[in-house]
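Exam prep: given the inputs below (a chain plus zinc ion), describe the expected output before reading on.
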Amino acid sequence: MDTGFRERLIAEGILFQTGVDGVWGRSGVFERIHDGIEQAITRAGLDQQAEVMRFPPAMAQAVFEKSGYMKNFPQLAGTVHCFCGDERAHRTLLGQIERGEDWLQDQQPADLVLTPAACYPVYPIVAKRGVLADDGHVVDVASYCFRHEPSLEPTRFQMFRMREYVRIGTAEQVIAFRETWMERGQAFVAALELPFELEVANDPFFGRGGKLMAEAQRAQALKFELLIPVNDGLEATACLSFNYHMTYFADTWGIKTADGEQAQTACVGFGMERLVLALMRHHGFDIAAWPAGVRDTLELG
Ligand code: AMP
Ligand code: ZN
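Solution:
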């Protein structure tokens, strides 16, 4: 793989290497762009009257299990474990580390799993409130997400920030929402003066059974991705996703519409780091030299 873009990001001090592929430190310039994108997404969604929810990068193990993530994506999940021993166990632990032995086997589960997608913690919270209002609900959610997919591609992070709008309501409301955001997503990226394509996509379902799941997802056009060329010599990168879950999460959590019907859900997800890198790829590393329209859209001053 041609890693020229990655090398330049490191040489320019935009990304800091941490010793693990896909886990990066980011510079002030990177974060300025990130913050500009965050605010532009907020402006694009102002009319949604969305309820804002922000989550830490880990979620309850029980919620994660019930969400069915391990059925579909066991290869991507990360769990949190901790030391829970006494002083003797502590001495053993230190000895193991000193001798370069495996010390992780004695760690205990912390009832926490790293959040794989920003919208997962939203559904049980909305479900707990009971039947939806007539016009359903929209949530503006953001979280750090974890996916165990170490890679040399600078656009494939193991820990990254995802911003989403999540629609919960009737089939009509949810389908209309996804249509709206597919339009808005394209307008958003066009305003950033980035080239893009919108394509039917599938999630990376695990194993042989997963192939069938992926085919079914494509056949029903349940997932679209907005792709932007970012990496040297590689396929374009998914920077926004538009997901229609039908009744999957509403069934799982028991969410009903005002009429007592099973609700449906959809979400639009923005990959924050990928958008920053796409901007740098196409407009360069010097924000001051970016096109005026892009600087205005991101309010970079
Ligand atoms: P998904 O749930 O896979 O549709 O992810 C939503 C969005 O998060 C995608 O459109 C990407 O922009 C972003 N994303 C997914 N995986 C990664 C990753 N490994 N690194 C960085 N961004 C990602
Ligand atoms: Zn989502």
